[in-house]
Write a structure and sequence with these properties.
alpha+beta, three-stranded antiparallel β-sheet
Length: 80
């Protein structure tokens, strides 16, 4: 009696990003180690690189970082 081994062929994963070709913009060198963005209704500022431990900083320390951050124009509107 003959036995046949059936190979399991994986089903294609829909929207598998490894199979898609998409154009990506390069990240500028000054942002490759991360950054913080401060945003209000009227202004956006960026600080790069993000300082270590910023997540645990007090409000006063974060305000100091805000003063160091470079203005980057008006905030972008998100799709609602």
């Amino acid at each position: 009696m003959e036995r046949r081994v059936q190979q399991q062929v994986p089903l294609p994963v829909p929207n598998d990003r490894r199979k898609r070709h998409e154009q990506r913009l390069p990240v500028p060198a000054e942002l490759q180690k991360g950054w913080l963005t401060f945003q209000s209704k009227s202004e956006r500022r960026r600080l790069a690189p993000a300082p270590a431990g910023w997540e645990q900083m007090s409000d006063e320390e974060l305000e100091g970082l805000l003063r160091q951050a470079a203005p980057k124009g008006k905030p972008r509107r998100l799709i609602e």
